[in-house]
Amino acid sequence: MPHRRKKRTQKQVSVEQDTAPKSFVIKSGVIGKAACHLVKDVRKIMAPYTASRLRERRGNKLKDFVNIAGPLGVTHLIAFSRTEHNLNMRLARFPRGPTMCFHVKEYSLMRDISSVQRAPKSPGSEYSKPPLVILNNFGSDEKHIKLTSTMLQHLFPPINVQTMQLADAKRVVLFNLDGDTGDIDLRHFMIEVRVTNVSRPIKTLLKTNIPNLGSFDDISDFILRGGDVSDSEAEDAPDTTVSIPEKGIGGNKRQSEQRAVRVAELGPRLKLTLVKVQSGLCDGEVVYHAEVKKTAGEVKALAKKKERAASTKAERRRVQQENIEKKMAAKAAAVRLQKQRQRENAVNGESDAQAEEDTETEGDGDDDESDA
């Protein structure tokens, strides 16, 4: 009898999960304790389509991640490394590039952001949905700016406004390009949606932490006096409210509700400067460099130099392959010669044994005749 598949425990993979861009966020070499925490924080930004528990080893090379990226469906690589002067971040696309190299000029960890907040947030289910992406001041016609905006957009799944639900908008990532300095500021926020047509005392009662009602004789006193809230807590501004159409029982439309949208920063913060763009995966032609500018003649000379190096490398590989084939042929010939000698020795041994048997037989016949 054929085995039946368990339907209840088989987790179905949605089309969005199958086509969404996935990423590796890794560290390369020794980068320091604080930068290691930054790697973990960036993984939270990229959640849920990232390897959140990835552990790198000192012996890991780039080709190791390239080899496993294909079977796992990983499309992007974010690698942090440190030199003597800078903390660097490389953003690359599997499997053939391009690669963008940034200097991390400044950064703040999630714990640094929460330590200065009056009421820090502790998100949980917010990381189950990908964040929204906002790009500001990326409308330049320069090629490296267009490439940067394209790479940042494709780091996260695209949004279908027609089918997207408000409950899926839990986080937002903001990339702001400073037109004067060329720096890119990254911010990470959590989105909060609250009902606006409810008074502040009712909101206080609906919170997880129940307020202290010991000084009131009746709960109506608490509601009529405006609730136990601070005077500094402001009402929701009209420009922060949105109308959400609701559906009643049986699909009947109800009156739309007004809800306030607020954001709370989660962190981390990064200030990045684009330094170099390469056409390949951490290799290849330098398409853009912020510090080194070359003339057309220098570019042609460099291209010719690369062609000569490539031809020399190809010739060296051809000669090496020929030498390998010669060695393999010589080894195969030696094996054949050894087997042939073994067969000849076996044949000679059999003939010698047969001759000894014949000699012993003749000797036994002579002895019998002499006895007779």
Fill in the keyword field for this structure:
372 residues, 2 domains, Rossmann fold, 11-stranded mixed beta sheet, alpha+beta
Describe the sheet with the most strands: 11 strands, mixed
* End-to-end gap: 83 Å
Return the CATH architecture of the largest domain: 3-Layer(aba) Sandwich
Rg calc? 37 Å
Structural class: alpha+beta
CATH topology of the largest domain: Rossmann fold
GO molecular function: rRNA binding
Region (Disordered): 230-256, 307-372
Biased composition (Acidic residues): 353-372
Biased composition (Basic and acidic residues): 308-328
Written overview of the protein:
- One of its GO terms (biological process) is rRNA processing.
- This is Brix domain-containing protein.
- Pfam families: Brix.
- Residues 308-328 have a biased composition (Basic and acidic residues).
- With 372 residues, this protein is an alpha+beta fold.
- It folds into two domains: 15-196 and 236-289, 3-Layer(aba) Sandwich (Rossmann fold); 296-372.
- 37% of the residues lie in helices and 22% in strands.
- The chain is built from eight helices and eleven strands.
- The protein has helices at residues 15-19, 33-46, 62-72, 110-115, 143-153, 200-206, 219-224, 296-371; strands at 23-28, 76-82, 87-93, 99-108, 132-136, 171-177, 183-195, 241-244, 257-265, 269-278, 286-289.
- Strands 1, 2, 3, 4, 5, 6, 7, 8, 9, 10 and 11 form an eleven-stranded mixed β-sheet that branches.
- Strand 5, helix 5 (143-153) and strand 6 form a beta-alpha-beta unit.
- The longest helix has 76 residues, at 296-371.
- It starts with 14 loop residues before the first helix and ends with a helix.
